[in-house]
């Protein structure tokens, strides 16, 4: 066998080992790459491997003295013969693809442990939600307090800081003096103008009154239906504008024998005859 064939075989083997190391990430610093077969009859033909630190990791730089018998066995080895047909580039792409999928999986589970993928947006949403719920709780408590004392809501103006802004806005101002949260809100949104949300306007107040009145009527109706007997009282009463109205009152006795009288609503008076009042009550 010629020297050219030997060099070609060794280069082929070195390139194969180098590519396999790069694809598989193997560190061969602690292992010898080749172990030569000893020739008992000729000590001068004994295989020698240079294992200096500077040459480890690069099989192409390893100095190997190998006899012709070993070279023949290497060339006839099926693995060496199949090197030319081995698809190194494809194996490299598969390896890189696995690395990419592993990295993507780590990112996914990391975000899953930390919460939603849009964690920051969700966090901001919850903060805004909690802020406005605290405001609405204070507004609702104010609206529930005023009718329980028979006090009117509105004044001649709808602005904070005025003496004629009514009991509703005035009571919010009083609470804000001892509540820093509401005080900061009034400074920021107290008089924002039309089109700006503050949840302190008369529109929000009217919506709360409507919702509360519905719950009250439903409760009265449920309580009256559970009573054994009930009666209806309709009376004509003029208001401050001297407009005649009908007051609709419900009377009944609950299970503990306590008499209950509930005011339901005002009804526009269509006449003073009994049939007119009956029609107005049934219509409403």
UniProtKB/TrEMBL annotation:
Region (Disordered): 35-57
Comp. bias intervals (Acidic residues): 40-56
Superkingdom assignment: Eukaryota
PANTHER family: PTHR45749, ZINC FINGER MYM-TYPE PROTEIN 1-LIKE
Protein name: DUF4371 domain-containing protein
Source organism (scientific name): Psylliodes chrysocephalus
Upper classification of the organism: Eukaryota, Metazoa, Ecdysozoa, Arthropoda, Hexapoda
